[in-house]
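note to self — DONT lose this again. spent like an hour looking for the file last time. sequence + predicted structure for the chain T wanted, 673 res
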Amino acid sequence: MLARLARLWRGSVTEPAPVPAALPEQPPAPTFDTDVAAAGLSTMAWCRRRRDRRSLYVSIPSDALANLREHHVAQTQRTIAAAERVLRHEFDLLGSGPYVPLDPDRSGLPGYMPIDWYLDPVRQLRFPRGVPYRAWNLYEMRPGHADIKYPWELARCQHWATLGQAYRLTGDERFAIEISRQADDFVEANPVGMGINWTCTMDVALRAVSWAIGLELVRTSPALDDAFWTRAYAALFDHGVFIRANLENTYEVTSNHFLSNLAGLLFLGGVFADLPQGSGWNTFARAALEHEMTVQVLPDGADYESSIPYHRLVTELFLGSSRLAEHQGEPMSNAYRSHLHGMVAFLAAVTRPDGLMPQVGDADDGRLHQFNADGTTSPQDARHLFGPAAVMFHEPGWMALAGPAGPWEAAWWGLDFNGTWLPTQAREEAGRLFPHAGIAVMRSGDHCLLVTNGVVGTNGFGNHKHNDQLSFEYHHAGTPLIVDPGSYVYTSDAAARNLFRSTAFHNTLSVDGVEQNEMRPDWLFRLFESSNAQHLSFEDRADASEYVGRHHGYERLPEPVTHERTFRFLKPSGTLVIVDRLVGHGRHELRWHFHLAPGLSAERTGETTLLLAAAAGRWQLTVPPGLDISIRPAAYSPSYGVKAPCSAIDISSQVGLRGEGAFEFAFEFVFTS
C-alpha cells in the first residue's frame, strides 16, 4: 500500500511513451569548468575573484560582528559551543537525541572521521549506498521502517551556517577547515545523482543554500587553498545543474518542495552570477518565485498547505529570497512584497502567548537556514523570522514579538537594526478571521483562542492538512490548556501518522467514528475533501469574540448529520463557551475530544464538571449532563520525531437526533495556584 503512496508522491502514473528506434543524442550537462571557460577565465582565477566579493547577505561587515559580540554575549557563546559540537560530529536532529554518525565503511584522516550520511540514528539502521536516484524506491529499498528524513536532514548541512558564524565570531580556523573536510567527505560518499541524498530535490536545494552560506562565511580563510575552492565550487555548481534538471513541479500541484528548489537556484544564481548557468538560474528562479507567490499564498496571507509550521517554512523561503534580491540590488516586485508582508502578519497573528506556533497541520521542522541552531530554541518557535521581517518592512511590533532572537537573526540577514524604534507592545489585541486559511484568532491579554475550520489545502491535495475542522487551541493567562496534538512522524510509522492527523485526535466532535474528510490509511500525504467547511459568522467586540462555523463531513453517513459549532470567547476573563449544534436524524455515536497540554492534569469533580490543574492555576470544564467521561493518556508532538506524554478528555454518548440537538461546554478560570 505504501508503494501506492510512493507513486502518488512522485506524480501521476502514465503509460510510457514508445521508445524511438534511435534516441536523439542529449547535449552534455553543463560543468563548472566549461561555464568558467565560457566566461573567459580559469577556474582558479574565477574562485579567487569570487572570494573577493560579498555575494550573499550573510557576509556581514566587521562592525556588525563587533556589535554581536558586545550585545549578544550569551548567544555568541552558545553559537560557538554549538560549532564545537559540530567539530565533534555531535548532532541532535528531529528528536533523535545527541548522536555521532561515524561511517563504518570509510577510514578517516588525522583529526577527522568521515560522517555516516546514510544513518537513521533513532532506529540505528543504515540506508543502502550507490543506488541511482531515479531507481530509488523508499518502501522497497529502505531497511526495516527506517525514517529517511534523518539522513536527509543531516545532509541538508544546515550546521554549516553555525560553523561559519563561529568562524566569523572567533577567527578560529578549525571551523573553516571543518567545512572543507565535510565538503570533501560528502562528495566522496554521495556522488552526484547516487544515493538517497539525491532522491529529493528539495533536500538538494536546501543543501545548496547551506553550502553557499557556509562557503560565503569562510571565504576569507587563509587555511583553505585554491585546490579546495575549486573542488567546493565545482560541487556546488553540480547542485545547481541537478536542481534545474529535477524540479519538483511535475505533480498535480506545487508546494514547499518546488519553492525550495527555486530558493536554492536563486542562492546559486547569486554565487555564480557572472557565469552563464548562474545567470540563467537567477532569471528562472526570480520569475518562478513571483509566480509561486500567487499560487501558494492565499489572499489572507496563509500558505495554502493547511499547516502553520509549513507556513513558517514557506514564509522563510519567500522572505530569504526577497532579502537576497534586495542584497543583489534587484528587489522583488511590489506585489510580491505585499503578499510577503501578509504572510508575516499571519504568522504574527497565530503565534501563541508563549511565543510558539500552534501545531496545526503537519510539521517537520523545515527551515531555509538556521542562525540560532544552538540547541536552546524549540523548533516550534518561529519568532526569529520577525527580526529580519521587522527591518525589511519597518514593522516595530514584529521586532518586539521576536524578542532577543530578533536583532541577532536580523544581523545575520545583513540587516541593520536600530533598537530605538522598538515598541512596548508586540501585537494588536484585535481578533481576526482568516477565511481562506480557515483560522479564527481571538485574544484578550494573554488569553488566546485559535479555531481551525478550513478546506483541504494545496488545491485539494491535502498533503499536510489534518482532520481538524472546528477544532481549537485554548490558552488562558499564557498557560496552554487545550492544544493541537501536532504531527509526530511521517513514513516510519504509518499508524502514528494517521492517528495524529485523524478527527478523533483533534479537539472536535466525531460522529460514528467517521473522518471529517476522507482519509485512506495507505495514502499518508493526501486527504479527500468531503467536509466543505463554512464560516457562518465572526464578530470581535470589546466584551467578547464569537466565531460560528459549520462543516458537512458527516453528511456522508447513511443518516446524515451536519455539525455546527459556536465559540464564544469572553473578555477580559478569557472564559470560553462552546456550543455544538447537530442537525440530522437517527441514532449516532458522538465523541468529543479535548487534548490537554503537557503538564496539565484533569480530574472529575462532579457529574458535569472536571478540574484542570497546572502549576499556574486551576480551571473548570463544565459539560452537558448524561455523558460518559474518561480521562486517558495521550501524546503531544511539539516537533518532528518528538512525542511528549499528556492527557486527553474523551466524552461520549449514544444520541438519538430528531432534527436538531445542542450541547454546551465551558472553560473558566477557578483560581491561581
